[in-house]
Design a protein that fits this description.
Two copies of one chain form a homodimer. Chain A is an alpha+beta fold. Chain A has two domains: 4-196 and 367-455, Aminopeptidase (3-Layer(aba) Sandwich), CATH 3.40.630.10; 198-252 and 298-365, Alpha-Beta Plaits, CATH 3.30.70.360. In chain A, 37% of the residues lie in helices and 22% in strands. At the A-B interface, β9, β10, α7, α8 and α11 of A face β9, β10, α7, α8 and α11 of B. β11 (299-308) of chain A pairs antiparallel with β11 (299-308) of chain B, so a sheet runs across the interface.
Chain lengths: 458, 458
């Protein structure tokens, strides 16, 4: 008789082939020209859930991209119900010219599959579909009750899932949530994320003259929005990484001595991490370690600027407008809306009267922290240890997964963040990849997690 | 018997039609895809000189775009020789979507011809070809000896004319130079520019990590080139317009009390000038008047920035690189090379060790001042007064015409800057235009200037 683990091992080739098909669909949720692709990815994932043996598979229409729901609820009332979340949309793939192979032609090289979305998050989301399928194929049943909720707007703000959760509390009712959308410390060191940063994303447009002016005829007499933007950016964060917006740090929960000690303990490969970025040196607030700065400290980054003449050669223009995208990563207990308000008030204060500044956006999510003594966290730790042969460490992660905060707020759920990515997966960048051994071990870890969780009675 | 002025007046329609043909050629010298267009514009202009009756018309090959030379040297040794300069290349027309009619489909509306290059400088350069043609058609001769030198790289640095001048001193030998590439104060107030600002143009590329990073995973641990650029820009010029580069003002020649008094005298329409820019208010160094700041004070403007994600929606990228174009407008006696060196040294000093900064370019020209008591300036003043019915005023202009400094340095020539543009011609911007009455009056002024100059014996 085959076991779920045997089933997973025997079907690795097939699972990889399926993943590659999933990765071929350019489901870029922020770019309207990809709307049909996002819909196609949703349907593909729903079909795979149907094939896995899940019940009630539904592609749920929203005002934006669809949600996918599915469940299997026959494990009994005395075992927990786990709500599994993932997202099938991906980041834009630009700049295309920096990809070694095209972003939507998945290619295996050196045990990695290269494609946009391979690690973030299609590969990781698909792991749990395959784990559930392994249990059902081998045993005809699951050790726990399972619900899936998958979204297609994680990379574009997640507004429709955010609206769906409070309106569908009964449907989504569970005992714990499971999300795989993070990275392990390294190939050999599994880790479980217990803290995520939050985010507040903003768009800032600065306009001076209503048309581009000749910088010879007007320079020195009309203020220049590009120069103004420089002054504004310099006033947002100092050169040591301290954000200068009044009130920004008011609600930041200080790290306890115990947590700082724990974070200091695990063996973070700072040199390897730096080498992988190619930057000349690490950087940031001098009073915090790199691990603390990356996971437990808020920050502010400009993500894009375009303004003036950017074609070949020179043009002596004093431009009308400059566009700037930026976000602030938040930590407990900063409130994204309060931070957006503080940002806008500060810009009002520092922007000179020679320009008008328009600020839009402000979508965000609070930071989250999960108690790591709950049974599901212990089940995850055991599953990792058995699969990887090494006990996982608990860590904070610098990224943001807004749904974790929403599960907490509306469903009262703690979330287990069972990541199988790696720090050098190049998510959100050219040449994104997913380490294939982690794809296969991820399925095994998920299989064991469901078993472990099933033996921890409610 | 027809006179040159009669000839010009009788042929206005024909001259406008010819100008429109000239303006149809997209001779953008900085964009290699327009190389053939630049060559076509050169040939068109050379043909028009041939038709005007000039001798020795030559399209001269260079390492870049061609020069055009022509002359008429039969006026005798006792009258001056005037060297007439203009340029047939144009600025890039981007952003195309802001043009009311396409930039290379010349369109007449409300007595203006709208097209890229209409005012800067095809329309103004063509004026003198037509003035010479009027003299030759009416009288069979010119009152002075004339040489033309036209270039196709004014908007892209002018390197090949710069190299040509010192190697062809005999060919270009003259008594005075004449350039129409500036603006009058207003439709009703002709003006002669006696001072031009110089320029130093630079490209700055700032690189941090060697690839785009996820701002969640890396933000707070790796410095961000876009944030760094903000700090650098803020340190280049303060918010009142004072450039902060050490040594920048060392060689600036102070304005004399007499010159400040003269500049204060003419009736500059500050409110109309501001309204035309659409900016909320004028701006600049508080210790100088607007007229002084625009013509007689150096400044620094960022012309273009592109970096990070600039597509639709948001992307949380910590970008690898940002590109920035900027220039400094210079006044007597600042030296462009010395200024470029000071800029580079300062960036070395202020750029943090978290990034690498590459600075290229540095092409430039010194500022120039022409003595306004020389006979050619008086001839120009008389020609303007007779054509426009108003005495011209003498003014400084904020733009840069590098060739004026080169004529001074290599040929020992003073230059008369006989401008027929207007301040709201939108040169270097969408919807560039040229005021048609100034095109026709320009031809008349040039005809009278040649007569006046001919009567001022050498």
């Amino acid at each position: 008789m085959t076991t779920p683990l045997n089933y997973a091992q025997e079907n690795q080739e097939k699972h990889l082939k399926q993943l590659k098909t999933f990765l071929q669909i350019p489901s870029v949720s922020t770019q309207p020209e990809h709307d049909a692709d996002v819909a196609a990815a949703a349907q593909w994932l729903a079909d795979s859930m149907q094939e896995a043996g899940l019940d009630n598979v539904q592609v749920i229409k929203t005002d934006g991209h669809p949600l996918i729901y599915a469940d299997w609820l026959h494990a009994g009332a005395d075992v927990p119900t786990v709500l599994i979340y993932g997202h099938y949309d991906v980041q834009p793939a630009e700049p295309f010219e920096l990809w070694q192979t095209p972003p939507f032609e998945p290619t295996v090289r050196d045990n990695y599959v290269y494609a946009r979305g391979s690690s973030d998050d299609k590969g990781q989301a698909f792991i749990h579909v395959k784990a559930v399928q392994a249990h059902l194929a081998a045993n005809g049943r699951l050790p726990v009750n399972v619900k899936f909720i998958m979204e297609g707007e994680e990379e574009s703000g997640g507004a429709n899932l955010h609206a769906f959760i409070p309106e569908n509390k009964e449907l989504l009712q569970a005992d714990v949530a499971l999300v795989s959308d993070t990275a392990m410390i390294s190939k050999d060191q599994p880790s479980i994320v217990y803290g995520l940063r939050g985010m507040c994303y903003l768009y800032m447009d600065i306009t001076g003259p209503t048309r581009d002016l000749h910088s010879g005829s007007f320079g020195g007499g009309i203020d220049n929005p590009l120069n103004v933007l420089g002054h504004i950016i310099a006033k947002l964060k100092d050169e040591n990484g301290r954000v200068l917006i009044p009130g920004f740090y008011d609600d930041v929960r200080d790290l306890s001595a115990a947590e700082r000690a724990m974070l200091a303990e695990y063996n973070f490969d700072e040199a390897g991490w730096l080498a992988e970025t190619g930057a000349p040196q690490a950087w940031g607030e001098p009073d915090y370690t790199l691990v603390e700065r990356l996971g437990a400290r808020p920050t502010l980054d400009v993500h894009g600027i375009i303004g003036g003449y950017t074609g070949p050669g020179g043009k002596t223009v004093l431009p009308s407008t400059v566009h700037c995208k930026l976000s602030m990563r938040l930590v407990p207990d900063q409130d994204p809306q309060k931070i957006a308000k503080a940002f806008k008030a500060y810009i009002q204060q520092i922007a000179p009267p020679t320009v008008t500044v328009e600020i839009t956006g402000g979508h965000g999510a609070p930071a989250t922290i999960t108690d790591f003594d709950i049974p599901a966290m212990k089940a995850a730790a055991t599953a990792y240890a058995e699969t990887f042969g090494t006990e996982p460490v608990f860590m904070r992660e610098g990224g943001s997964i807004p749904v974790v905060g929403q599960f907490q707020e509306h469903l009262g759920l703690e979330t287990v963040l069972m990541g199988f990515g790696l720090p050098d997966d190049k998510i959100h960048a050219p040449n994104e990849r997913f380490y294939l051994p982690n794809f296969f071990k991820g399925i095994e870890t998920s299989i064991r997690f469901l078993d472990e969780l099933g033996s921890s009675k409610k």
